[in-house]
């Protein structure tokens, strides 16, 4: 367990070849079964990865069966669909996924060269549990090879026909080979049929001009038509073209990297997918996806009409308050800092009023560019997935809803084949936001969070609490260090990235930009107040002097002196996180522990968010009942007409029903108490103020994301960033632990 | 005894079905089908020979379409077709094939379910399963059973096969057999969900067939036909089970007053401890169904809804469903032990919650049961003599983790309860993952297969799992995500029994 061994074989049999992979410890091999020599491994991924696994025997076994189409004409015979096999290899203790496909080759018997790719793993359940992932990944890979191959094949035929045209006397060929005119004309007919079939596809290939003489043309035709003994078959590279071959090999490596991850990571990723794909309102911490705040859950309870739909998002536009910190306070601060060139604070963005047009369904984006990468539908050529007719690939289908749809409906009868929606959907592997388990099992793309256990052991609790509190509430942390500590500070920045809350963006590019802006490993320029709207964690050269106006709003960590200047934390949320009473055997376990705590926090944030949303829609409903003459109705989405909205901190006076109960500890909540009985409660008393600040900040992040999403959907310009001006009193702490 | 088709009678029917098949696939003309049935005998001997080995050698001197349909005409005899016992709506057919040292793969018998496959397709299945199995080193009768799953979009079917060795013929020579279940391509997604169950049942069938072939190869297939019936009937039930969209407003998540919180806590605790598999028994079907809808919301995976069922009519127990309702007052141990996973039994009349032993102990009990069942079949006994000693244990209290969850859940306003519950279950999953990671780290550090008691104690302390019920709850979730963790933590009971024996003998 743990280590993943991958082994990858590519073989080309008489008409077949194979590629495969082995899981645990890591390697991949490839082999070829040629018409002349039988099955030979082509290559493994990673190289030399087959280890003790008997690749030759395995290839012989998987290539033993012919996968050719027994169709009635030449076109059918050359267009065999891919075939997939999962088989166990008890002797080796392995299980393999084998993907057979055919490449076209004018010089091969029957014009086809069946190839196969296989993936071999020691985990007996992994492949069948994630069969569709394997199927999809390898279908994409074969599609790359096939598309390159089609171009080469078409070029081959055209050249061949060209040469035949140039021949003055076909009799010459017949004389040399001793074949009858009939067979030769059948060959030419075959070529013409195949050429006709190919022309229907892409017509973009430029034929290279070859000045072939009649003599060389004659020789070529003889070689290609009658396989002369000793002639070698073309390599995979020659069959697909250099660029497509490299692209295909890269795709194989990518697929291997994706699939070699432990089965548990694949399974959790699949579960998360239900929640992740809604796009607009995901909350993440560092690079780990935490929770989706969209109203997808409302689909779970269609009969509970009270739930708030995201079509009510319009009302959020009037809510762009950024709590007490980003609101009026911010404006005042800006007025005092007139000499600085400031961006307009976010409160004004609500004046970019959202049009009251019915918004597109939020939480589900109709077309997302980043989906194309994994969406089989985006492939330009007809792939095996679409050929299956029976299976419809629908990335838009709502999994949450389908989870509650009776399966009998899915199955249908023979008469309704287009019914299997839902589970066969393209999976999205966003490089910047991943499932939390990827980090725990060391297979993440980033190293954020690495070193946290050392950090916990190195600094005392009070020190770290201040750092994390600042990060979680959105107060920028600057780590000052000398030049010679640049690497160490950079590592600290990477490590603490996992505590920077953010929202996963819609496109990968956008997300990359954002991640780049949120942290800066080594800043050598002075920073402006406006930088604080994006930068949350900065490693900085000590020589740089911070402007006074910035210094007051940031937490400063002196790396060499091991001191920190920032608002002290008095809550209890981070206690469990940093407690040294608990012993963790390794960093991964500690990261898993952190993820539990962060998720628990996210649940609280979710409850807060939903109740605010609920309160606001209830309020809208009430105001709409007041009649059309109401001033709120005249400008329902501007901050000005609802002056009380931006100025009040969320939740302080708004209706906040029953939420407090959720925050109570288990001992306080009595199971026997009537759940319907509601008591008015001052919720702020139950949660320490600092913890509430964290929760509020996270709620604001989600809201901001939704508003910007709404602006995107309605084609309005993106709202400018928000600067949080935090006036909390600060204290200096020194690390006491050595 | 199932009906055996008379060849002449079946012929027209088969052809008719095959024509339909050809039309649906849009490929084969009626003439092509006739050829594929072996009515055209102009095939070349050599191509037939090579086809026997799975290779289609196209003669370049002839256009390929002249060759490809000249299949071997005697490979599938007409008297091997029979109807699959039990009524099925999803299994296309089940077939047994054998590797013949002279003619290659042969179809030994076909039980047609929803349709009769053409000879070409049947031969495809045989070839795919048996080619490549020749000349393998481990071909004695004790060789392990190899499993294969094929997706053949070309012919529109997928099939799962098990390749095994058994004696055959007058001289009882070891032969390679395969038992395959063929399903239409369009059903493969649902099939994938049930693959584990099908695999388990098919392995049982393979054991039965092997035993029969050892006993008397000539009557084995006929006896086996009878034994197929329970398999087909039970798989049919599993295949069609699924829950309709629930009426959430009626569930105990929104109306807890129907039951005491303490009872709900016990049920949910045991449900999660037994990997989400629960049987609800009682006398009122409607009440049972609402209870099932409620309990489903605590499942850790959405797919389990597709393996659950409300009360059915007639109300019977179906092994291996995640959650099911049975209108009865009692459920026998012999029924419950057939499931692969431990089960919780909730009695809505008496409010008693019972559960089978934990996963690692349950596995041993089930193995004993299956062995005893095979033995009793072998000896032609009417009943399985297996008796479990106290299969069920009563669940007396709920786990603190569940109490906390329910407390917070019922503290939520109604409109938030469903999402809150979804997230809370996800939090439990994260805790289970932390447990998995902890155990893995300790295993890697100490290079052992299972942890010592002290280490387990340490893990429980640091993960705040002081209560046994909490610990088993997280283990129940963890085992689903990471098979094998139960044995790593709790030890292999089979191993313990062995140790006890050693100690016993050493003491003398």
From TrEMBL, chain A:
Keywords tagged on the record: Autophagy, Cytoplasm, Guanine-nucleotide releasing factor
Domain (UDENN FLCN/SMCR8-type): residue spans on this chain: 17-668
Region feature Disordered, mapped onto this chain: 1-33, 340-391, 405-425, 617-656
Primary location: cytoplasm
Top-rank lineage group of the source organism: Eukaryota
UniProt entry tagged with the keyword Cytoplasm: yes
Biological process terms in GO annotation: autophagy
Compartments in which it is found: Cytoplasm
GO molecular function terms attached to this record: guanyl-nucleotide exchange factor activity
Polar residues biased stretches: 14-33, 347-356, 371-381
GO cellular component assignments: cytoplasm; guanyl-nucleotide exchange factor complex
Family, per entry: Belongs to the SMCR8 family.
Protein name listed in UniProt: UDENN FLCN/SMCR8-type domain-containing protein
Native source organism of the sequence: Planoprotostelium fungivorum
UniProtKB/TrEMBL annotation, chain B:
GO cellular component, one term: endosome
Coiled coil: none
Signal peptide (UniProt feature, chain positions): none
GO molecular function: guanyl-nucleotide exchange factor activity
Alphabetical list of Pfam families matching this protein: C9orf72-like
Lineage top rank: taxon: Eukaryota
UniProt protein name: Uncharacterized protein
Protein species of origin: Planoprotostelium fungivorum
């Amino acid at each position: 367990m743990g280590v993943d061994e991958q082994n990858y074989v590519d073989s080309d049999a008489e008409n077949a070849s194979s590629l495969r992979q082995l899981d645990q410890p890591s390697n991949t091999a490839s082999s070829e079964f040629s018409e002349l020599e039988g099955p030979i491994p082509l290559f493994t991924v990673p190289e030399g990865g087959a280890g003790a696994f008997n690749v030759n025997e395995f290839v012989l076994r998987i290539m033993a069966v012919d996968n050719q189409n027994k169709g009635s004409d030449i076109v059918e015979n050359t267009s065999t669909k891919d075939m997939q096999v999962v088989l166990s290899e008890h002797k080796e203790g392995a299980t393999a996924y084998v993907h057979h496909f055919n490449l076209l080759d004018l010089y091969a018997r029957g014009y086809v060269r069946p190839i196969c790719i296989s993936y071999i793993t020691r985990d007996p359940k992994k492949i069948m549990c994630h069969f569709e992932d394997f199927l999809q990944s390898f279908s994409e890979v074969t599609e790359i090879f096939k598309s390159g191959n089609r171009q080469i094949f078409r070029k081959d035929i055209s050249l061949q026909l060209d040469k035949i045209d140039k021949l003055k006397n076909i009799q010459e060929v017949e004389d040399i080979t001793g074949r009858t005119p009939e067979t030769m004309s059948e060959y030419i007919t075959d070529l013409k049929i195949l050429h006709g079939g190919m022309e229907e596809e892409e017509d973009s290939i430029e034929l290279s001009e070859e000045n072939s003489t009649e003599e060389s043309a004659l020789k070529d035709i003889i070689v290609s038509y009658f396989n002369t003994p000793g002639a070698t078959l073309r390599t995979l590279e020659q069959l697909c073209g250099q660029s497509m071959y490299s692209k295909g090999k890269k795709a194989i490596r990518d697929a291997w990297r994706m699939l070699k991850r432990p089965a548990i990571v694949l399974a959790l990723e699949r579960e998360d997918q239900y929640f992740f794909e809604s796009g607009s309102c995901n909350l993440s911490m560092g690079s780990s996806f935490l929770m989706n705040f969209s109203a997808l859950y409302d689909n779970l309870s269609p009969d509970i009409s009270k739930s708030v739909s995201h079509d009510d998002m319009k009302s959020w536009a009037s809510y762009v308050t950024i709590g007490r910190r980003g609101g009026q306070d911010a404006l005042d601060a800006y007025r005092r800092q007139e000499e600085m060139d400031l961006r307009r604070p976010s409160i004004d963005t609500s004046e970019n009023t959202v049009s009251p047009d019915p918004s597109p369904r939020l939480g589900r984006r109709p077309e997302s560019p980043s989906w194309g990468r994994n969406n089989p539908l985006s492939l330009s050529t007809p792939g095996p997935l679409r050929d299956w007719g029976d299976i419809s690939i629908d990335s838009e289908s709502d999994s949450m809803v389908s989870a509650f749809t009776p399966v009998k409906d899915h199955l249908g009868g023979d008469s309704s084949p287009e019914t299997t929606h839902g589970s066969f959907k393209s999976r999205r592997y966003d490089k910047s936001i991943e499932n939390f388990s990827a980090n725990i099992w060391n297979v993440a793309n980033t190293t954020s969070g690495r070193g946290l256990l050392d950090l916990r052991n190195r600094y005392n609790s009070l020190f770290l609490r201040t750092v994390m509190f600042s990060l979680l509430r959105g107060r920028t942390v600057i780590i000052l260090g000398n030049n010679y500590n640049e690497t160490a500070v950079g590592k600290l920045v990477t490590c603490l990235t996992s505590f920077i809350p953010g929202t996963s963006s819609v496109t990968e590019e956008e997300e990359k930009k954002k991640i780049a802006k949120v942290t800066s490993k080594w800043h050598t320029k002075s920073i402006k107040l406006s930088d604080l709207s994006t930068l949350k964690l900065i490693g900085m050269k000590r020589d740089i002097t911070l402007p006074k106006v910035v210094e007051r709003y940031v937490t400063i960590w002196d790396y060499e002196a091991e001191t920190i200047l920032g608002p002290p934390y008095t809550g209890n949320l981070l206690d469990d996180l940093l407690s040294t009473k608990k012993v963790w055997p390794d960093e991964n376990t500690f990261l898993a522990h952190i993820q539990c705590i962060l998720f628990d926090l996210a649940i609280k944030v979710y409850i807060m968010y939903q109740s605010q949303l609920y309160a606001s829609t209830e309020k809208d409903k009430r105001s709409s009942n007041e009649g059309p003459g109401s001033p709120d109705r005249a400008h329902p989405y501007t901050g000005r007409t609802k002056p009380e909205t931006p100025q009040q901190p969320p939740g302080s006076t708004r209706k906040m029903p029953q939420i407090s109960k959720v925050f109570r500890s288990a001992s306080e909540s009595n199971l026997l108490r009537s759940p319907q009985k509601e008591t008015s409660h001052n919720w702020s008393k139950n949660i320490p103020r600092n913890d509430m600040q964290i929760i509020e900040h996270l709620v604001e992040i989600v809201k901001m994301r939704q508003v910007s999403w709404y602006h995107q959907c309605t084609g309005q310009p993106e709202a400018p960033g928000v600067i949080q001006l935090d006036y909390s009193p600060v204290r200096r702490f020194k690390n006491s632990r050595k | 005894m199932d009906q055996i088709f008379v060849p002449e009678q079946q012929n027209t029917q088969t052809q008719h079905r095959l024509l339909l098949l050809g039309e649906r696939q849009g490929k084969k003309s009626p003439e092509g089908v006739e050829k594929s049935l072996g009515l055209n005998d102009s095939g070349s001997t050599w191509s037939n020979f090579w086809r026997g080995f799975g290779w289609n050698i196209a003669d370049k001197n002839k256009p390929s379409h002249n060759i490809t349909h000249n299949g071997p005409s005697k490979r599938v005899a007409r008297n091997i077709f029979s109807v699959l016992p039990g009524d099925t709506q999803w299994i296309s057919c089940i077939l047994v094939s054998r590797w013949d040292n002279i003619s290659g793969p042969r179809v030994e018998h076909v039980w047609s379910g929803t349709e009769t496959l053409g000879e070409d397709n049947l031969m495809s299945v045989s070839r795919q399963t048996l080619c490549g199995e020749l000349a393998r080193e481990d071909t004695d009768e004790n060789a392990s059973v190899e499993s294969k799953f094929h997706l053949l979009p070309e012919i529109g079917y997928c099939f799962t096969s098990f390749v095994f060795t058994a004696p055959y013929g007058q001289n009882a020579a070891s032969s390679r057999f395969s038992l395959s279940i063929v399903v239409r391509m369009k059903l493969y997604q649902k099939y994938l969900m049930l693959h584990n169950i099908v695999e388990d049942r098919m392995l049982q069938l393979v054991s039965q067939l092997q035993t029969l072939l050892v006993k008397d190869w000539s009557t084995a297939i006929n006896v086996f036909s009878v034994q197929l019936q329970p398999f087909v009937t039970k798989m049919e039930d599993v295949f069609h089970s699924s829950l309709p969209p629930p009426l959430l407003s009626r569930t105990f998540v929104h109306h807890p007053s129907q039951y005491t919180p303490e009872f709900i806590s016990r049920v949910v605790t045991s449900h999660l401890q037994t990997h989400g598999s629960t049987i609800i028994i009682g006398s009122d079907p409607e009440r049972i169904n609402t209870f099932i809808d409620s309990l489903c919301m605590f499942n850790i995976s959405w797919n389990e809804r597709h393996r659950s069922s409300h009360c059915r009519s007639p109300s019977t127990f179906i092994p291996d469903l995640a959650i099911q309702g049975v209108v009865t007052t009692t459920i026998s141990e012999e029924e419950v032990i057939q499931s692969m996973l431990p089960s919780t039994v909730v009695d809505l009349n008496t409010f008693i919650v019972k559960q089978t032993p934990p996963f690692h102990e349950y596995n041993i009990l089930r193995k004993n049961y299956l062995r005893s069942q095979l033995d009793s079949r072998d000896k032609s006994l009417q009943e399985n003599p297996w008796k479990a000693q106290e299969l069920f244990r009563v669940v007396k209290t709920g786990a603190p983790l569940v109490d906390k969850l329910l407390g917070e859940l019922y503290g939520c306003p109604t409109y938030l309860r469903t999402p809150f519950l979804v997230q809370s279950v996800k939090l439990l999953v994260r805790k289970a993952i932390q447990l998995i990671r902890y155990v893995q780290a300790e295993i890697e550090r100490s290079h052992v297969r299972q942890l010592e008691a002290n280490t387990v104690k340490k893990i429980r302390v640091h993960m705040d799992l002081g209560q046994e019920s909490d610990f088993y709850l997280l283990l129940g979730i963890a085992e689903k995500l990471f098979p094998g963790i139960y044995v790593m933590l709790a030890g292999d009971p089979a191993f313990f029994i062995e140790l006890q024996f050693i100690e016993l003998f050493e003491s003398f």
